[in-house]
Amino acid sequence: MAQPQPSGPVALPLRSWQRAALSAYCSTNPRDFLVTATPGSGKTAFALAVAALLRRRRVVDRVVVVCPTDHLRTQWADTAARAGLALDAALSNAVGPVRPDLDGYVTTYAQVAAKPALHAARAAARRTLVVLDEVHHAGDGLSWGEAVAIAFERAHRRLSLTGTPFRTRPDERIPFVRYDEQPDGGYRSRADFSYGYREALRDSVVRPVVFAAYTGTSRWRNSAGHVIAASLSGQQTRRAEATAWRTALDPRGKWVPHVLAAMDDRISHLRAAGMSDAAGLVLASDQDDARAYAELVEQVTGHRAALIVSDDPAASARIAEFAQGRDRMAVCVRMVSEGVDIPRAACLAWMTSYRTPLFFAQGVGRVVRARAMEETATVFLPAVRPLLALAAELENDRDHVIPPPAASPEDDLLDVVRPDPTPGEPDTVEIVDSDAAFAHILHAGRAVVAEPVPVSADDEEFLGLPGILSPEQTAALLARRDASVRRRVTSSTASAPSAETAAWRAGAALRADVNRLVGVAAAREGRPHAAVHAEVRRAVPGPPSAAAPLDVLERRRDHLMRVLGTG
What we know:
Elements (H helix, E strand, L loop, with lengths): L15 H13 L3 E6 L5 H14 L5 E6 L2 H13 L4 E2 L15 E5 H6 L1 H10 L2 E5 L9 H11 L4 E6 L4 E2 L10 E3 L5 E3 L3 E3 L1 H6 L6 E7 L1 E6 L4 E5 L6 H11 L6 H18 L6 E6 L2 H15 L4 E4 L5 H10 L4 E5 L11 E7 L5 H9 L11 E6 L2 H17 L10 E2 L15 E6 L2 E7 L2 E3 L22 H22 L6 H27 L3 H11 L10 H15 L3
Parallel strand pairs: 1-6, 1-10, 2-4, 2-5, 3-4, 5-6, 11-18, 14-16, 14-17, 15-16, 17-18
Antiparallel strand pairs: 7-9, 8-9, 11-21, 12-13, 12-20, 19-22, 21-22
Helix pairs in contact: 1-2, 5-6, 9-10, 9-14, 15-16, 15-17
């Protein structure tokens, strides 16, 4: 049955889901309306269509948009102008009234929290539509939620937008949002209109995504002086997994440059295959890591990376320059996690410890905005269970719309079990080293590892197009390319090891020697290993071998060799 269409033209061309949402809005004529639409699908255009329609019908006299960042203020105002609405993107809290020749203004949640009474006066002075962009930000702190409630309680209409359903604690309710109580506690937002990744992919609004997971071994020294090695994808406690993840993301290790080189290789392939301006985004946890990652990008790829951090006054200009330019990569902190429109970005390196479903969806949303049918997105991420579980949800939606060829029954199921932490595990760690290796791609909720499946050179053209290559072929191709990436990283980052790394490697070799000689002595004398270790410690005093310095380890090795008659 045909959907009812709102009367009157809209200034911006609308997609089918936006027209359906606009019809739903018009049919209910609500004071409050929440739209949940997958990142990259066009929430801004929908909201402005509502605003233009209400202004044209004289339902409201003013439009106020509240968004997370200053950069998005400009983006909203520019898009509003194309919809026939004049919004002030620079109105500050120091100015009282809104200019009478404008339709309204764009502000941020921080500005509203700073002076809620001012915004309340503006919203009450005329019949106002308030658009709360990424409304979950109103829950970033109790003060922000309270400020939004105070500022817009008397607004004539309120339209809330978010990229994915969000949850809040029982004591943190975001204003103007309806909730459903969850069986396990907390509340989940209830949308008046929803448009998910699956629907957007079906409508060719977003690109299909391939998730490439990278494992590796992380090494760190705990507070007891013990050097611990753990795989990112191994079965371990939550704390060990988190430490291995944090160690892998350290720019001094080998995991980061390896994955950067893999993403650069993918960008080169996309550009050669016809996406001439393809680019990648690197999401960092903080500004120190971001700067270090930017240096690694230049070292590994030979190309400078755009550095976009929230504290930079020129951040908005840098985003616009990168969006319109041809730089291959941008390293970002917070500035491009949501709302920012960079359609040429088709690759994402997840080099942050953030792991919430909302942030993950927003981050992936930066590289899925579709421009052409043949464009695809690739997300490079650590092979840790929290991220693999989040990626599997999006990947299952993708395969529901674009089913890949069937996977073999021997594929290992994606393990998302989180074992309990080990009591008493030390908190203080000192990062030592890390390395990286391609682990698998995701397919139908499974981790598909590389098998010896024939893949021709021509197949590379289709890498990342779900349904063209089988999961095994895609994994095999990525694994094969990973070998060349490894050689490239080794040559580009070749240098003398740091004193810390050299000392660790020397210590590891000495500990192995001591343990081997203890084993020989224990077998010869028929005694437990622990008894021999205790005897060696009495002969050569000092901490246990796992925490002993190099000189103590050398003396213990020499002592054992003399006892065994091999020295």
